[in-house]
Specification:
This protein is α/β, with parallel strands linked by helices and 178 residues long. It has one domain: Flavodoxin domain (Rossmann fold, 3-Layer(aba) Sandwich), CATH 3.40.50. The protein has 6 helices and 5 strands, in the order βαβααβαβαβα. The longest helix is centred in the first third of the chain and has 18 residues. The radius of gyration is 15 Å and the shape is globular. The two termini are 22 Å apart.
């Protein structure tokens, strides 16, 4: 019997409980829905790492918190990696955490990159910066990265946002039935 697919989340926002975290959780639900619609069993929960909670440990000598968080995320088959857009790219906090991942850490996994920004002029940053980082770590990133203008986050709640992000996934060809 096959194990259910696990969808995890890594958020690189330095603010705990951020809008980026909410967007990433909504994207996880959109991924779960898209995969379930294809008849794949998906675990009800998956690991979630909010990097803001790890920030004090990122550069602390001898700290194992980041490594433990990365080990927990290794249980995911699909990993949503999200960040707000700072200076036209992902955050330094996300980079500092991913720099501690071993080579090919994401080999055999699918990563769904997500960037949140205040202006649409940053929409390509997910393709130019975050997607290549995930590929460097060994992830398969078979569709376009997901970009969310933060104005969208003021919309109709998590369920509505998950639906809107699901539409973006479908338009980009993510998890399309063969």
């Amino acid at each position: 019997m096959n194990q259910p697919l696990v969808v995890g989340v890594l958020v690189g926002n330095p603010r705990p409980g951020s809008r980026t975290l909410n967007a990433a959780l909504a994207l996880r639900e959109a991924v779960r829905h898209a995969v379930t619609a294809q008849g794949v069993e998906v675990a009800p929960d998956g690991p979630v790492v909010d990097a803001a909670e790890l920030a004090p440990a990122v550069f602390a000598p001898g700290s194992t918190a980041v490594r433990e968080a990365l080990d927990g995320l290794s249980a995911a088959d699909v990993l949503v990696v999200a960040s707000p857009t700072y200076k036209a790219t992902y955050t330094g906090l996300l980079k500092a955490i991913l720099d501690q991942a071993p080579g090919n850490w994401l080999r055999g996994k699918t990563a769904v990159p997500l960037l949140v920004a205040a202006a649409d002029k940053h929409a390509l940053a997910v393709e130019v910066h975050l997607k290549p980082l995930l590929a460097e770590l060994g992830a398969a990133v078979p569709g376009r990265g997901v970009f969310v203008n933060e104005a969208l986050l003021a919309g109709g709640g998590q369920t509505w946002l998950a639906g809107a992000l699901g539409e973006q996934l479908a338009e980009a060809g993510w998890f399309a039935a063969p």
